[in-house]
Design brief:
This protein is an alpha/beta fold. About 30% of the residues lie in helices and about 15% in strands. The strands form 3 sheets. Strands 1-2-3-4 form a 4-stranded parallel β-sheet, covered by helices on one side. The chain has a two-stranded antiparallel ribbon with strand order 5-6. Strands 7-8 form a two-stranded antiparallel sheet. Helix 3 packs parallel to helix 4. The longest helix is centred in the middle third of the chain and has 21 residues. The model has no long low-confidence stretch (mean pLDDT about 90).
């Protein structure tokens, strides 16, 4: 439709991917919010290649730095870092030029840069009530805890930015890939 600018779609995982592939051939790239676990995105890349034959990117992925499953704060941050690392490596390994990957990955956006205290029940508290079940450390989606950067105990929020273990993980991954 617009030959001068690439156009992409953002979807929830592979929902309606078959329809996108058949009915939206003018779209240049397929993006999706995907949360499947610390191993990566599973069959996502293959599914996009088969249904749409387009470049693909993850518009949202990540994990909370809180588990609610008896993990210490440090263990939960380690689990978050491991989750991000597995997802990042899956994107990297499915990029063009890798023998074992599909070759259609063009990137991804980590969710979220900073914890979002305002999302659930009490804006002034860092809520530890789970939203829904999910493929995360501890098995639940603690939406306010997805930040690569935390805000400490909230006394200096919303201005404080404390790098978590996942921040260092990304720094290591970035430096090793250049």
């Amino acid at each position: 439709i617009d030959p001068n600018h690439p156009v992409a779609i953002c979807n929830g995982d592979t929902l309606f991917l078959d329809k996108f592939g058949k009915l939206a051939s003018d779209v240049d790239a397929y993006g999706a919010n995907v949360y499947r676990g610390d191993y990566g995105f599973g069959s996502f890349w293959q599914q996009v290649a088969e249904a749409a034959d387009k470049p693909a990117f993850i518009t949202e992925y990540g994990a909370p730095a809180y588990s609610g499953a008896g993990l210490t704060e440090n263990e939960a941050q380690e689990a978050q870092a491991g989750y991000h690392k597995g997802n990042w490596l899956d994107i990297y390994n499915n990029s063009a030029g890798f023998a074992n990957g599909i070759g259609n990955a063009i990137g991804g956006f980590a969710f979220e840069w900073v914890d979002e205290w305002w999302k659930n029940y009490e804006p002034a508290l860092h809520d530890t009530k789970a939203d829904v079940v999910g493929p995360f450390p501890g098995g639940y989606y603690f939406e306010e805890w997805f930040g690569i950067l935390g805000q400490g105990d909230g006394k200096n929020s919303p201005f404080l930015r404390e790098p978590r273990k996942v921040y260092s993980t990304y720094k290591e991954l970035w430096n090793s890939s250049n």
